[in-house]
Amino acid sequence: MESTSLPARIERLRRIAFFRNLPFIVVADLATRLRHERYRQGETVFVEGGLGDSMYFIESGQVKISTRSGSQERVLNYLGPGNFFGEMAVLLNQRRMATVTVVIDADLWVLRKADLESLLEKYPAVALQITEELSRRLTDTIKKPVKEDIYTPVAVFGDEPWVLAEALKRLTGERIALLDMSGSGMIQHSKYLPIELVIESISPRATAQEVTEKMSLLAGTHDRVLVWLPPEGFEACVKAIQLCEAIVFIDAPAYGWVNQFAFKPTWHIAQTLGEIGRVARYLAHRVVGLALSSGGARGLAHVGVLKVLKREGIPVDMVAGTSAGALFGGLFAAGRSIEMIEDFALNFHKQLSVWNLLDLAVPPRTGLIRGQRLLKYLRELYQDAVFEQLEIPFYAVAADVLTGEEIVLDKGSVADAVRASTSIVGILMPHHLNNRYLVDGGAVNPLPASVLAERGADIIIASCVIPSMEEEKEYRRASRGSGQMDLIALVSNFQSIMEREIIQHRQSCVDVMIAPKVAAYRPTDYLPAAELIRLGEEATERALSAIRAQLSPRISGVGVKR
User: Fold this and answer.
1) Which has the higher per-residue pLDDT, 137 or 547?
2) CB 247, CB 258: distance < 8 Å
3) Residues labelled as active-site residues
4) Is residue 303 within 8 Å of 533, Cβ to Cβ?
5) Residue 173 has what pLDDT?
6) Could you tell me which residues come within 8 angstroms of residue 299 by beta carbon, excluding any fewer than 6 positions away?
């Protein structure tokens, strides 16, 4: 590339936005000084803290600017064709302030420090051009200080990729482009599509370089690019999927040639609005998690929470529950109707008798109740479901009574997981599962929002039915004064005290807290289920505006050039 003639180099530089308006004599001088370099996707141009002796101009491709604190990466910007980077270390004689990684194969032009100083002294227009661009970036940073590290180029297989584009646009408000490589000629029929969408096309038999240039141009002017690919693995298609960060099959088989990219995030979904909406949230890093706390009978209020979320169309992509939260969260994740869950909740008190679920342990060693009848009942209730079959990812939290570890159950029998998570210490015998003795997860994580955060939830809604100490004081003073309390109520209340203290230190990852006012009811009061459900509904309705604010479109600004 370095042997290219001077006129050809000038012509290439003229196609880059930064050089377009500079006088010809300046561009000609630059053409003799700049050195061309090509980087592949994933390669690092330079790293934070390194010495800076040159700046870079992007002819094609896309780069990510990021910093790192420990294991946490903070994405500052995505830059595409026409932009430059690395100038601050050169101008201020400092070490690199960020790491630059190539996202889409990039052609870069490199300008050494000595040449830059000479140009700035000789041609003030270059300094003005750099100043204007830096000013624009500063304005963007003030408006959107941190960029979201999202899946920007996405490969799509299937018949109607615009449905996914519509879901992403509605979710994020982004500027989305669709690159048609399917050979279908969709661009000719774009006016008939149900949404307004920027569509570009390129032949599936184009060269790899042509695909790289086309994708980098679209990435430079749009927040996200969907690449519609055909079943055949032509060279251009292989290059396109190599440059994409995720793959989505919409009612399409997994083609053999795509297997070499199995390491990329991949979704196989049906062409339903529900599944397309869910994968759109994963692609946009807007995954919604729902955490349901422990709380005994007060957990019946979770049913009211679920009713309102379902009624209002609030999406839930994963659920984590502890104790009562696991009981109802498991049913929701298994796809049971809200009507069925509510009917179960309203009649649950009928099952809580010695002759139904409560098989007494004689003599009582590790608990008053053996729990075998409860396990049998749960297996019937969940229809012997296993986690891998659930409609929504679900996590049940229990505690290892011997080690004190938090155990997150997400494989195997759902009934066994719920039995473990609901094993109140002293009341229900520990559940022996996976070579562990497991008890109620409220002892370690009564509001499992952290479980969702660790598994990729971006927006976490939590329903907490464990009242604060102030609420307990208000409603319990008369009851405690009367001395009316049995063993089960004593153990349940003691556990509530412990859970309340734990929750105070584990709320940091919650975006919206739903707190039903259930302090007037004991953790053993299963009879007033209808009232507890109503309180859950009311609390959720109060939180709807905050939930919708979290879900409302917000443009990420990734890769957008003005």
Assistant:
1) 547
2) yes
3) 323, 440
4) yes
5) 87
6) 292, 293, 323, 324, 325, 327, 328, 465
